[in-house]
Amino acid sequence: AQSVTQPDIHITVSEGASLELRCNYSYGATPYLFWYVQSPGQGLQLLLKYFSGDTLVQGIKGFEAEFKRSQSSFNLRKPSVHWSDAAEYFCAVGDPGGGADGLTFGKGTHLIIQP
Amino acid sequence: NAGVTQTPKFRVLKTGQSMTLLCAQDMNHEYMYWYRQDPGMGLRLIHYSVGEGTTAKGEVPDGYNVSRLKKQNFLLGLESAAPSQTSVYFCASGFLGRGRDTQYFGPGTRLTVL
């Protein structure tokens, strides 16, 4: 069964500093890859997605992510964080092959922004 | 265009009570999903539907039933609620399945079972 690992439960970053959130997946083939963000008390919003092609993908709110097949990783980055980026971030994968539909999510990384 | 809406937003049940959560989408999506979110667990798929009149089990289906009688609605039922079902429930929908396109999420329903 496919799985998604987000190694960092919490990350604290100073406002204006750069950010990298890690995501590793375990799957036989390359799955569809996603990053979602969840603000407190809210639903999930898609930041970006990767299906194929250019391994560096741009998303909303200044985020980008890089797919590295050799490392089975899809890390999320932002050059300069803003206080409004404080939220929960989820990496997710979709199975392009058989099995159940839906997404498999990591457990999330809670981002704290220091002033 | 309201997107994905969920009713109710909050609910408290006693063990053994039943309830139905309603999800509605106005984007004409074929695919609809119910997830539950527990602290430190991320989101886990309960049931899903690939079109009107169809339903299928996800990762954690036990204790839940679903129905998709109309394309725009996806209902999640708890026949006999248990404290282990205390969670935040999210509905999502999309044009394509298997994560091939964006899944749009509702705002969630916070359920507490005493």
Structure description:
The complex is a heterodimer of chains A (115) and B (114). Chain A contains no helices and 12 strands. In chain A, strands 2, 5, 6, 10, 11 and 12 form a 6-stranded mixed β-sheet that branches. In chain A, strands 3-9-8-7 form a 4-stranded antiparallel β-sheet, with no helix packed on it. The radius of gyration of chain A is 14 Å and the shape is globular. With 115 residues, chain A is an all-beta fold. Chain A starts with a strand and ends with a strand. Chain B has 114 residues and is mainly beta. Chain B is 0% helix and 50% strand. The chains are: A mainly beta (115), B mainly beta (114). Chain A binds chain B through residues 4, 9, 31-32, 34, 36, 42-46, 49, 51, 90, 92-96, 100-108, and chain B through 4, 31, 33, 35, 40-45, 48, 50, 56-59, 90, 92, 97-100, 102-103, 105-108.
Please summarize what this structure is.
Chain A is mostly beta strands. Chain A contains no helices and twelve strands. In chain A, a hairpin with an 8-residue loop joins strand 10 (87-94) and strand 11.
> Biggest sheet of chain B, in brief?
7 strands, mixed
Task: Write down the secondary-structure element order of chain B.
Answer: EEEEEEEEEEE
Shape of chain B: globular
Please write the string of helix (H) and strand (E) elements of chain A. EEEEEEEEEEEE
Low-confidence stretches of chain B: none
